[in-house]
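Reminder to self: keep the SMILES exactly as supplied, no canonicalising. Ligand is zinc ion.
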Amino acid sequence: MPIYEYRCNDCQHKFETLVRNSSEPVSCKQCNSLSLQKLISAHAVTSGAPDTACGTAPCSPLPACGTGGCCPGMN
Ligand SMILES: [Zn+2]
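Structure tokens returned for the bound complex:
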């Protein structure tokens, strides 16, 4: 289940909430306002593995991004 972060437009309270059903209205945990700003969840941004060798190449000090490989002999 995704966790979403919201900021209340009325009291500026920030909170995270578990959304079981996207049609279910979310209200501020502090003032019960329905006027909320949905923020990008940090949990969602960090999920998944990188699709390049960038940062994962142990065999070369060269930047691997955009080169298609990390080892000179493997290209
Ligand atoms: Zn509020």
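Points to follow up:
The helical segments are 42-45.
The chain has a mean pLDDT of 74.
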